[in-house]
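Tokens for chain A. Residues wanted.
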């Protein structure tokens, strides 16, 4: 169900529009003046608003992540900047492109600063003054609603006031009636229900209640539903078609952006790091044990196609390398191997895989063939990871799910984060994951062995 506009959102959004329009127009007067400034202001204002509507630039909610705001801002800057540059072509006394680009950078940076300031001010305002809150109730099995219960109680800055919890041990009609009556009597804003605890008939009744009483209704999915949550609607002529996966990296523009990023980043590492590190590692590895410099292993890639994954060899030569995963205090690991595994230096040759187009800098970690075969039938949605190129690092690894798989929970959570990454990809998310990975390497990771 569509979220209702918050109490103050009706004022905040128009205020944001006006502030942003003032910024881009005042700066245009001083940085890129025109003979007919009035019409120029009209045109860039219209372009800004139309671009913002198209990209959902002002669709910012209390639960929106800051990285999503940054991502929207970059897209807004790109389209608006392109319009400004094209507009200069029709001006006989146009400003130099450098000046226009400078104007775009300054204007959008200032807009972003104001936008983020308002976003964080509202979060602090909710904590300090208790304002801009939405009252909510939870309905469902205790185990399923507990995570959201903790979120509401431990994060007051998001602006949700958990008023009451209604537990459902089974399909309890009485609890549902009490919940809906409470919502009406106390004028509750939002209802959160555990969808797995309700029958289709009960869900339909609650939806009808929410629609008829103008209440925001949201459902909490279980683990399996989370793994298939990104539904995309398309229309073939007037016929609606639903796709259960919205793989952003499959879009042509995103493919190009992702590939350019991978090429630039991999070339940078190969030239600045691997060019001098390779001979050093060759000496250290070969002095301690016999065998090649690189450990080459077949791993599962995009569309489940196998490829040769490169690593610096960190083990003695052994027949179980392609079948047995490494574990803590593994006797096969050499002294040099312990160091390069702990610091993740052993993974650096995979930048050659990135350069060749077999891997990406960020993506689901590739598993060896035997592991893929094992979990493909054992873990639900495991093969969804193979819709995109595997990565040197990934979202799951930044959340602590790297290295040895000790329990099924480890691999289930790894798959959950991998699928979330696939369906919510952006270049900014890639950059964030890279920085977190570097931080973990410098700090030291307990699972790096």
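Reply:
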């Amino acid at each position: 169900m569509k979220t209702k506009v918050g109490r103050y959102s009706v004022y905040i959004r128009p205020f944001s529009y006006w502030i942003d329009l003032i910024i881009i127009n005042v700066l245009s007067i001083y940085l890129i003046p025109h003979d007919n400034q009035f019409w120029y202001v009209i045109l860039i204002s219209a372009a800004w608003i139309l671009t913002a509507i198209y990209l959902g630039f002002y669709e910012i909610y209390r639960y929106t992540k800051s990285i999503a705001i940054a991502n929207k801002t970059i897209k807004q800057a790109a389209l608006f900047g392109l319009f400004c540059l094209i507009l200069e072509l029709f001006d006989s006394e146009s400003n130099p492109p450098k000046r226009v680009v400078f104007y775009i950078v300054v204007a959008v940076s200032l807009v972003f600063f104001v936008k983020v300031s308002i976003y964080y001010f509202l979060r602090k305002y909710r904590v300090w003054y208790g304002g801009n809150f939405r009252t909510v109730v939870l309905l469902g099995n205790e185990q399923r609603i507990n995570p959201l219960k903790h979120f509401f109680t431990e994060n007051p800055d998001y602006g949700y006031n958990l008023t009451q919890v209604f537990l459902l041990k089974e399909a309890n009609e009485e609890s549902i009636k009490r919940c809906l009556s409470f919502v009406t009597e106390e004028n509750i804003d939002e209802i959160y229900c555990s969808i797995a605890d309700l029958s289709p008939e009960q869900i339909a009744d609650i939806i009808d209640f929410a629609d008829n009483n103008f209440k925001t209704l949201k459902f909490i999915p279980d683990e399996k539903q989370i793994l298939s949550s990104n539904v995309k609607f398309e229309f073939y002529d007037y016929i609606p078609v639903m796709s259960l996966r919205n793989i952003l990296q499959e879009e042509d523009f995103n493919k190009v952006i992702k590939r350019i990023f991978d090429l630039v980043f991999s070339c940078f590492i190969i030239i600045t790091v691997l060019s001098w590190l390779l001979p050093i590692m060759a000496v250290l590895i070969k002095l301690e044990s016999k065998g090649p410099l690189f450990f080459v292993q077949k791993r599962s890639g995009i569309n489940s196609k196998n490829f040769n994954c490169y690593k610096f060899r960190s083990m003695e030569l052994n027949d179980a390398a392609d079948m047995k995963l490494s574990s803590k205090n593994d006797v096969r690991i050499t002294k040099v191997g312990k160091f390069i595994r702990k610091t993740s230096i052993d993974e650096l040759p995979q930048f050659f895989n990135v350069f060749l187009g077999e891997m990406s800098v960020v993506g689901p970690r590739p598993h060896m063939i035997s592991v893929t075969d094992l979990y493909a039938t054992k873990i639900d949605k495991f093969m969804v990871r193979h819709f995109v190129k595997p990565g040197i690092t990934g979202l799951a690894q930044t959340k602590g799910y790297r290295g040895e798989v000790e329990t099924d929970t480890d691999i289930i959570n790894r798959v959950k984060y991998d699928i979330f990454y696939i369906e919510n990809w952006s270049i900014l998310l890639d950059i964030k994951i890279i920085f977190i990975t570097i931080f973990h390497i410098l700090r030291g990771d307990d699972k790096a062995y």
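Residues 250-443 form one domain. The longest strand covers residues 160-167.
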